[in-house]
Amino acid sequence: MTNNDTRIELVTTVTPEHWDLLLSADPSKKLVQNYLQSGMLFVQSKDGHPIAVMVLQELTSDKLEIKNIAVDPRLENQGIATRLLQDAVHFAKVHHYQQLQIGTGSTSFKQLYLYQKIGFRVTEIKRNFFVKNYVQPIHENGLLLRDMLVLTLAI
Ligand code: ACO
Ligand code: ACO
Fold this sequence. Notes:
The protein is α+β, with helices and mostly antiparallel strands and 155 residues long. It contains five helices and ten strands. One acetyl coenzyme *A (ACO) binds at residues 109, 142.
């Protein structure tokens, strides 16, 4: 994949810089380790440093999930995630998936805007997902995060 003047590569060795980004999207190291085992880690780099990550994982033969997407906080709101999401849509098309899925917190207003801007629609609510699966409570936008919204894009 290419993205303007930066490089996007499929990576097999996870560095501490990758971990910083991965954990900013998903604070559970255990869950991240689980999906990294069967998922594909794409890293966008600029001048040799990672600036964004995205993990894609096949759920079924026709469904792909974006398990993790994160951008260096110093480079947010410049369209990096929008382009990475478009790359994921392209990847799903090329590999003949019928659906692309992404899950996010019900309190994640920016993420919900971004995913719906790309065309994702809410298809499921996983109630108490963040209470059951995370040791520490997660607060976001002044709210306690409990529920996960699953959004799906038909490819
Ligand atoms: N409410 C609504 N929209 C907002 C808000 C807000 N509070 N803040 C910014 N936006 C808009 C921006 O204006 C922009 O819209 P525009 O392109 O129409 O102008 C859009 O949201 C952001 O788009 P990008 O610039 O493409 O996104 P960015 O590169 O900043 O990356 C991301 C977004 C990945 C969510 C980044 O903020 C990040 O890494 N956050 C921390 C990790 C995280 O939460 N990851 C996602 C978790 S869910 C998962 O991983 C499956
Ligand atoms: N994203 C996140 N939070 C926001 C945003 C935003 N884009 N814009 C404002 N806020 C926050 C404010 O900071 C404030 O939070 P805070 O109190 O923690 O600082 C909060 O949202 C707004 O709270 P209030 O001031 O109590 O709400 P307000 O009196 O502005 O009324 C309402 C909200 C009813 C939605 C008003 O904006 C409105 O009438 N909108 C048009 C009609 C509408 O949409 N009605 C609701 C439709 S659903 C229904 O009717 C059942």
